[in-house]
Design goal:
This is Flp pilus assembly complex ATPase component TadA. The protein has 662 residues and is α+β, with helices and mostly antiparallel strands. It has 24 helices and 25 strands.
């Protein structure tokens, strides 16, 4: 059946775009068009689009070829729609001007503005005058979001108009980033993926190679689960993009770059791999509806807008992949998602990313928040070095973890609770077997295992996928052997898991976890009143560490706010706490505490011999004074490692192997 919109390009030999409406979008198939659907550069293609909009509006105009898709949205689409309305209505009064509006709406607007009579009224009523007033030319007016069809995102190639250039950086994926604007307003993180620098022949090769993959012409061999054949099939699947490119590319084509781009978009997470190849990027936000909202990022703590949008189909593909890889439901029946993904790319040190998602009916389609795990796990010396806590406080936490204390790390979201809990995992004795219970993996289990630590992860279910219920996870952990227990986040049934382990002392080693709360009293209220843990069980807690995030001239900073011991089950005594007045006095006298965190100071309770926790940490035959000496030795070690910047897991493990027994 003939496309009813085809009449708009029948009489123009310079344009072969085939227009068709898809809901609120006008699609132009430009595969056979000599102008390629470039509305900014080709007046003939512009005429086809504007003529199709004469009696129907669109929220976006999308032109497609085999190698490239351009999406004209926002003010660009508004200009095209206004030109279509003006051309259709002005034809009765000035046919020549209406005809000009279809191919050159900016010139037509300038000619109509100020004219007396219906034409002058129409150019204002249709909005064409206002659209034309805001721009200088078509490169400014019709700035599309562009991308090859294989990509699930579209990129605005041109920088923001009149934007001040701030800096540039090259990423390991081959992408280029330019930052525009100043820090007084929201700046723009302008990403140019490597495939957007490909010439026409390279884009043709990319499209042809993708077609080969889609047809299965170069797919890897089938695999039998759990066998060497499965591993071989997986490796072959990873090599398939390179083979597809080599089959279609010319001798002078950038084969490696083409293969990397194809692999990124078919085997990886597309443009997310580019963002997380930048070590300064910690978060990427895709706000629903994703097709209309550019991605935003957090770069070194600064929120920025970007020039990138996910496509609607790209967001759906991501949702499907997260469901498949995490075994979690994500649909209208289960419209929230908490998962992890390996978003690493060739040449990048970044890997694990936590994914939070929402979709219909609680959101207008899929929306996501992606947060990168730190490439290098944090250690206590690293947290001393960056001022999160002082060396003397770190020494207490280190000895408490080593000597089987039961502790909670508290604070609001984003305060660094999981970071500190992960650092404490390195303080557990090297010979200790540790079971880690999490619903979403965030702790550095793989890094600990690579350094010879015996860490067994257990995944708890959260109602939307496979895993153990928290009580079953505890029973399983106890059957897996004596040792330490680490619970990623205490927020529901995990409380019963954690406190049953603390109460019975079943594992015989440290029991650690994180919880939302502010200070010991607030944590007890949440655990006992909100989570239903008996007060007698909470009494098994030895200490509560509370963190906070504070704003400084250099940006947001996370720090330990208090370290409290639990006395008689319901009373909290601070062993270390922030004191702004002490900070001012110490700064003026030059006696800031070790580690660069002058706000966190000892309260003197340990030195006076009043700490129940320090007394409880004493081994058989040790006195309170012996524990204080061990704390002093540990403080010196941690401060020395921080001072010499020996803070990586490898350096810390090596240093701990040489330290004298505590």
């Amino acid at each position: 059946m003939r496309n009813p919109l085809a009449r708009f390009r029948d009489d123009d030999p310079d344009c072969a775009c085939d227009p068709e409406f898809d809901d609120d979008r006008l699609l132009l198939d430009a595969a056979a068009c000599p102008g390629g659907g470039d509305l900014a550069a080709e007046p003939a293609c512009r005429r086809t689009a504007i003529a199709a909009l004469a009696d129907r509006e669109a929220a976006a105009v999308v032109t497609r070829t085999d190698r490239l898709e351009r999406a004209y949205e926002g003010e660009a689409a508004a200009l095209l729609v206004a030109a279509g309305r003006f051309a259709e209505r002005a034809a009765f009064y000035d046919a020549a001007l209406a005809d000009r509006a279809e191919s050159d709406p900016l010139a037509a607007a300038r000619a109509a503005v100020g004219r007396a009579g219906p034409v002058g009224e129409l150019v204002a009523e249709t909005g064409l005058a206002e659209c034309a007033r805001r721009v200088e030319g078509y490169a400014d007016a019709l700035r599309p979001f562009v991308g090859p069809p294989v990509a699930k995102a579209r990129v605005a190639a041109d920088p923001p108009p009149d934007a001040a250039f701030a800096e540039t950086r090259e990423l390991p994926t081959g992408a280029t980033v330019r930052v525009y604007g100043d820090e007084r307003v929201l700046r723009t993180y302008h990403l140019e993926p490597v495939e957007h620098a490909f010439d026409a022949s390279a884009l043709d090769a990319l499209a042809e190679a993708h077609e080969l993959l889609a047809d299965g012409a170069v797919s890897g061999p089938s695999a039998v689960a759990g066998t060497d054949s499965e591993r071989a099939g997986s490796a072959a699947s990873e090599r398939a993009p390179g083979r597809a490119v080599r089959e279609v590319a010319d001798a002078d084509a950038p084969v490696e770059s083409l293969a990397a781009a194809l692999r990124k978009h078919t085997r990886g997470y597309g443009v997310l791999a580019d963002f997380f190849a930048d070590p300064a990027v910690s978060d990427v936000f895709a706000t629903a509806p994703v097709g209309r909202n550019p991605l935003r990022v957090t770069v070194d703590g600064e929120r920025m807008r970007t020039n990138v949008r996910l496509t609607d189909s790209g967001a759906r593909a991501l949702a499907s992949r997260f469901r498949r890889e995490n075994g979690r439901a994500f649909s209208r029946a289960a419209p929230t998602l908490d998962a992890t993904a390996e978003v690493g790319a060739t040449g990048s040190d970044r890997g694990g990313v936590r994914v939070a998602g929402v979709t219909d009916p609680v959101s207008d389609g899929p929306g996501f928040a992606f947060r990168a795990h730190d490439a290098t796990p944090w250690t206590l010396p690293a947290l001393v070095e960056n001022g999160t806590l002082a060396a003397d406080a770190a020494a207490l936490l280190s000895l408490a973890a080593e000597r089987a204390a039961a502790g909670l790390v508290a604070g609001p979201r984003g305060a660094g609770k999981t970071t500190l809990l992960g650092a404490l995992c390195w303080e557990l004795p090297a010979a200790t077997r540790t079971v880690v219970i999490e619903d979403t993996p965030e702790l550095p289990v793989a890094a600990l295992q690579r350094r010879g630590r015996d860490f067994q992860p257990l995944r708890t279910e959260s109602g939307d996928g496979p895993g153990l219920a928290p009580p079953d996870a505890l029973r399983t952990a106890l059957r897996l052997g004596e040792g330490a227990l680490v619970v990623g986040e205490v927020r529901g049934e995990e409380a019963a898991v954690l406190y049953e382990a603390m109460r019975v002392g079943a594992n015989g080693d440290a029991v650690l976890g994180t919880i939302h709360g502010d200070g010991g009293a607030g944590v007890r209220e949440r655990v006992v009143s909100d989570l239903g843990v008996p007060a007698s069980s909470f009494a098994a807690t030895d200490l509560v560490v509370t963190l906070e995030a504070v704003s400084t001239p250099a940006g947001k900073r996370r720090r330990v706010k208090t370290v409290e011991e639990v006395v008689d089950g319901d009373r909290f005594e601070a062993l270390f706490r922030t004191d702004e007045s002490q900070r001012a006095r110490r700064a003026s006298s030059g006696t800031a505490s070790a580690g660069g965190n002058a706000e966190l100071d000892p309260t003197g309770r340990i030195d006076r011999g009043n700490s129940a926790l320090v007394a409880a940490l004493a081994d058989s035959g040790e006195s309170y004074a012996d524990v204080r000496e061990a704390l002093s030795d540990r403080e010196s070690l941690l401060a020395d490692l921080a001072r010499r910047n020996r803070t990586t897991p490898a350096a810390v493990v090596s240093a701990y192997a040489d330290r004298r027994p505590s």
